[in-house]
Protein 1
Amino acid sequence: MQPAIEAEVVEAIIRDGVPLIGAFGVTVTALGAGTATLVMPCRDDFVRPGGTITGPALFGLADVALYAAVLSRIGRVELAVTTSMAINFLRRPALVPVVAEARLLKLGKRLAYGEVLLFSEGEAEPVAHATGTYSIPPRA
């Protein structure tokens, strides 16, 4: 099954429709039907005391990665919104780009549920695991 939207379109939706995260410099590197891989660069303003990437930047990346996975199945539905999201920080991320791998676990008419694993680029062990639910607006 092919994705319902192109990666470049998802990237533009993130940049224009989610401007805070769009300003992070996130790129969509792969998009499948129900999956998305995004990369967030490591920037000086993401580094907090202790030499780690701040949790809010990681959370934002996880949220927008799941959004991309949802859009990969339902197409350009910009009013799909997060209804709940939880994240577990598993280990300190390295000061390198962060890779988000999102996948949908369940897609219904009004809700989509999925998970996101975050990795320091080049590492095999995840630095965080997130799960979330998106609300899909009714079709007109």
Note: The CA atoms of residues 35 and 69 lie 5 Å apart.
Protein 2
Amino acid sequence: MERQVILREIIDSIKSLKKDIRKKYRAEVVGIFGSFVRGEEKEGSDIDLLVEFSADADLFDFVGLSIFLEERLGRKVDVVPRDTVRAELREIILEEAVPV
């Protein structure tokens, strides 16, 4: 039960930041995947987020979003742009991802 509570808190936090994420970083968080979704997270686990950046987003948006989310969530965040996911991993990640 605790795992679901932690995952729900992360999702709710990200949802509350969606407007800022869109405006400041030209991005949309698509979903959360990885150890938190599978219930395998440990104390030092990062949060894996699948993100869709707009066509005009740049490296500053990517890095800025990572820092912004880490500060707000209090944990290391791995921002994974959806269009950079290798084909052999895409299906696995998309099946596992919990929408945000």
Note: The first helix runs from residue 2 to 25.
Protein 3
Amino acid sequence: MTAAGGDFGVIVVNYNGVGVLGAALRSCLAQGVAAASCVVVDNGSRDASRALVREEFPGVVWLGNPCNAGFARAVNQGLRRVRERHVLILNNDAELLPGALSALSACFTAHPQAAVIAPRLVDAAGKPQNVAAPWPRWWREILPRSLLKRLAPGHFGGRLAQVREDRSVASVIGAAMALRRSALEAIGPLDEDFFFYLEETEWCERAWRRGWQVWFCPGASVRHHLGATAKRFEAAARIEFHRSRLTYARKVEGFGAWVFLGLWLPLRTAVDWLAQGILMLASLGTLHSARQRFRVYGRLLAWHLRGRPTHLGLPDKCPRLAA
């Protein structure tokens, strides 16, 4: 076991990820993480994920939920099981590249106030992915994204992924993030009011407000097969994002932001739906992407107009979450 690997516990949240979960676990074990320090929290998978872990990774801890408890709750379940100095939260569709844990450990040493550290994320072809995000604010929903990219390229574009030096950021992308145990104890667990999006963003903002820092350390790299779950359930994932965005406004930004976004998000969705409908008609229905987006925006708009029912969104939610 390498010294760096022994400092880390790993939490992998899984949902029907049998095709990718094995690679994620192998990448952690290869860097010296003890099998007993790897925890898979499963959110009601119906595939062969359990059999995979039992047969190929018998020492890995399996925590099985009977239903989809959401990302934040699943991570918190895992946090109660690992006690190492650092905790790596890793998507089931992500893999550590060689030397990642050693680089993350060195980064924690170099930045003693770092509560969370994000590695460089790359896709299967080695192309960098965005690794950081700004704190959500209502006015950012109005400004064109192209303008935001020019004003803050490190947050809104891919440029941050190209830098070679460590850099502090507002918040990180939760596909792979390493947390300091002492910071967790001071800041608290992830907020379980967020089901699938923005839970890591809220935690990062909470960390900054309590005197900690958030860092991007490009010396560590992780391969990420971007958004496997979101791709399978595109409309449902968009519903969950809007739900989390409204939750963020209510809990962090204030009542005024919550009211504004409650009006703005369905209005913007309606405009997007109409635009895709016009594009679909103009192409005589031959443009598949327009047809797909038309259906997705239509379902998202219907969710808003129906009063945002909690049972809609990603499937197999636990009863309390879908009530």
Note: The chain has 14 helices and eleven strands.
